Structure formats: structure tokens, C-alpha cells
Amino acid sequence: MSRRSGILEFAVLGLLREAPMHGYELRKRLNTSLGIFRAFSYGTLYPCLKTLVANGWLIEEPGSAPEEALAASLAGRRAKIVYRLTAEGKEHFEELLSHTGPDTWEDESFAARFAFFGQTEREVRMRVLEGRRTRLEERLEKMRASLARTRERLDDYTLELQRHGMESVEREVRWLNELIESERAGRDQRPATPGRPARQDDTSSDTGGLPRHGGSTRPDPSDDTDK
């Protein structure tokens, strides 16, 4: 299995842990909530879903009333199929969620893991964040060494491009430092509000104490038509 396929399977299982969905809903969530999958197609998603079903981690269920499914068949359209996580699928996702190896620090893997931090234990979050920071610090050191060796041979535009890349990495390292400090400060301990008891690992739509950063995950209005 390729790394990208593994990341996609992880993301699909994570989204279906929240609620059953059909393929269109899944693709929409992957595109809007997980930008790393913005360019992927149904031709990528459906083989992934079939593999997860074959492994016993998902089951397929009719997503429409019988008469609606019949009408879709007569019209030559694909009837909706809802994908639901099985008990084995939930257990498998929990195992993936607890993994903190070096592959979780890479760019796409880290983005997918971070999207499901609301479902992840604090100790695991910390190991992934610290590993990611270490990986970026190593990358930054190599970039600086490379720039020092080649500076005299670079034109102004190439030099600016390399500086821009270094600044991007430096910004992410600062962001990770903020996140790690928030975790160490106990960001899960949320104060009670009227009508709402204090709880841990709240996964509501606010940031729960995380540093706020830009980036909307609103669906594209052009995607409003269901399929």
C-alpha cells in the first residue's frame, strides 16, 4: 500500500467514525476539511472504500428508500450507498490513531493526523507534535546549510525562493511550539459554561484553547447539489 493510500484510508475511517456517509459526502468532507485530498477523485475514493469493506472495516447499506433506489436504477443512475464503520473498523482506527512513528511526522501524514487530534489521546498528540517539530528543525538545518554553500551561485530570485521556503518552515516550527505549550498547559481542561459541564477532549467546532490560525473549511457552494 502506498503512503498516500494509507493516509486516505485513515481519513475515511476517521470521518466515518463520526457518522455514516455515502461517497459524495465523504469526498466533500475530505476536500473541505482535509485540504491534502482536494485534488483526488471518485476513482481514488471508491477503490479505497471497496478495500475497507473487503477488510471488514466498513459495511455498505442502502442510502435511499427502496422505491428511490429502484427509480435510480431505472434511470441508469447509481443508487446511494451509505458506508458505516464496523466494530472491527473502529478498533483498527483506534490502533492507527495511537501510532506515533516517524511516518506520522511527514507533511501529508501529519496533516491527516492533526485533523483527528480531537479524537486522539493527549500523550499521542504530544509525541506527534514533538516528532513533527524535530523533523522540521532537521529540515531547517539542512536548508540553512544548503543555502550557505550555494548562496554565491544563486541569482536574486532563486535566493528569495529559498528564503521563502525557510521562512515557511520557521513559521510552522513557531506554530508547533505554541501547540506544544498549549498541550502542556492542559488545554483539555475546559471551564464549565451555563448549561454545559466541563469536559475533556471536546471536539466541538471551536478551537478548545488551540492557537487560532486562518483557513476556512466551508464547502464550495458549487458542491451543494447532492449526488
How does the SSE layout of this entry go?
Layout lengths: L2 H16 L2 E2 H11 L8 H13 L3 E5 L3 H9 L6 E5 L1 H11 L9 H9 L6 H29 L5 H29 L43
Helix pairs in contact: 1-3, 1-5, 1-6, 7-8
Structure explained in plain terms:
The protein is mainly α and 227 residues long. It has 2 domains: 3-99, Winged helix-like DNA-binding domain superfamily/Winged helix DNA-binding domain (Arc Repressor Mutant, subunit A); 121-184. It contains 8 helices and 3 strands. It has helices spanning 3-18, 23-33, 42-54, 66-74, 87-97, 107-115, 122-150, 156-184, and strands at residues 21-22, 58-62, 81-85. The chain has a 3-stranded antiparallel sheet. Helix 1 crosses helix 3. The longest helix has 29 residues, at 122-150. The radius of gyration is 21 Å and the shape is globular. The model is unreliable at 189-227 (pLDDT under 50).
Keywords:
mainly alpha; three-stranded antiparallel β-sheet; Arc Repressor Mutant, subunit A; disordered C terminus; about 230 residues
